[in-house]
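ARCHIVE CARD
CATEGORY: sequence design from structure
SOURCE FIELD: tokenized fold
FIELD CONTENT:
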């Protein structure tokens, strides 16, 4: 996990990764670092309902009904087997190893969905980050999957009044803007 963080920091430093690029609306630790009871409740709900989130997200983003149903059902079976095999460990020693194999399978499904959505929305990151996020905090990843279509809002470095703001979408160049627009006092870059 530290290696991935180091890679991201160096990629930003050397200009290979845009630190102001598109990102998920909800951060991976936001349920704990912000005072937002509904976010914390979503986290607790997603401990049990992540397979349903995978199903709904797949449908919402163009997946087939059968594929979404198979994804949700497979995730539910893998997650349930993880829990059940830990309980069976009481009477059958060694079951915990199989439990963790099922959990890794579940995490792989969550990771693949996050990778697909990250690619679709051009969000910074890589599959290794997605895997570790899913492995450690899959309910937060489920919240991100639910909210991935929502924009995170606008970002500005200096607070500006409304009449002095020019909103520019990522990727716009000076040639796309009118000369009157360039005479504004500040620019806000829309994130996403």
């Amino acid at each position: 996990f530290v290696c991935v963080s180091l890679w991201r920091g160096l990629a930003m430093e050397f200009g290979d990764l845009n630190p102001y690029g598109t990102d998920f609306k909800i951060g991976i630790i936001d349920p704990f670092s912000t005072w937002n009871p509904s976010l914390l409740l979503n986290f607790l709900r997603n401990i049990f309902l992540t397979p349903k989130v995978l199903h709904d997200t797949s449908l919402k983003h163009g997946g087939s009904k059968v594929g979404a149903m198979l994804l949700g059902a497979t995730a539910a079976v893998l997650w349930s087997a993880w829990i059940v095999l830990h309980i069976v460990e009481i009477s059958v020693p060694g079951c915990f190893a199989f439990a963790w194999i099922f959990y890794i399978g579940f995490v792989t499904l969550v990771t693949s969905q996050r990778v697909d959505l990250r690619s679709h929305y051009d969000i910074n990151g890589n599959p290794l980050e997605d895997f570790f996020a899913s492995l450690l905090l899959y309910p937060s990843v489920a919240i991100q999957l639910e909210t991935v279509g929502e924009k995170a809002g606008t970002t500005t470095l200096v607070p500006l009044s409304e009449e002095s703001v020019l909103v520019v979408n990522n990727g716009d160049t000076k040639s796309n803007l009118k000369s009157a627009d360039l005479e504004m006092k500040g620019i806000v870059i829309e994130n996403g």
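CARD ANNOTATION: The chain is about 60% helix and 5% strand. Residues 152-160 have pLDDT under 50 and may be disordered.
SHELF: design records, drawer C
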